[in-house]
Amino acid sequence: MLQENLNKAELAALVNRLTLGVMFLAHGLLKLLVFTPAGTAGFFESVGFPGFFAYLVILAEVGGGVALISGIATRLVSVALLPVLLGALVVHAGNGWLFSAPNGGWEFPAFLIMSTIVQIILGSGAYAIRLPFLANVKFAQ
């Protein structure tokens, strides 16, 4: 049985946080190790974004994923990751609803945006690293 002092909202925040963190980390590592940064930059340019955005997105996804998994500044990290998801939504918006559509639809980025907003509302939840210098910043955790 789980500890008595953990409520359902804290556990829900933990599950959502870990899920988002793993997803961001996996996507960032995919861009870094499989597509390569140069290949990702080329893709970004092909869809109308500046190529250097690819490096920022890789950094945001890998760093943000690790921070979310750890529970470090969850709300701040989640807010910082929203532009990445909005960019993905823009790229996939013209492809139709389902992500199985050619070039991927917009359902998955839209779902992730909503899940990230839920994380911002819930905060870090259970088993999060609380940094002392952010202790007085209520919105951070």
Protein architecture, described:
It is a single chain. By secondary structure, this protein is mainly α. The protein has five helices and no strands. The two termini are 26 Å apart.
Secondary structure elements and pairings:
Elements: H1 8-34, H2 37-46, H3 52-70, H4 74-92, H5 107-122
Q: What descriptors fit this protein?
A:
5 helices; mainly alpha
Task: Describe this structure in a few short sentences.
This protein has 141 residues and is mostly helical. Helices cover 65% and strands 0% of the residues. The chain has helices at 8-34, 37-46, 52-70, 74-92, 107-122.
Written as H for each helix and E for each strand, in order along the chain, the element string is: HHHHH
Report the uncertain regions.
Answer: none
Q: Please tell me what the overall shape is.
A: globular
Count of DSSP E strands?
Answer: 0
Q: Cα distance, first to last residue?
A: 26 Å
Profile the largest sheet: none
Enumerate how many helices there are, as a single number.
5
Q: What integer is the average pLDDT?
A: 92
Q: Approximately how much beta-strand content do the residues carry?
A: under 5%
Helix content: 55-70%
- Class inferred from helices and paired strands: mainly alpha
Radius of gyration from the CA trace?
16 Å
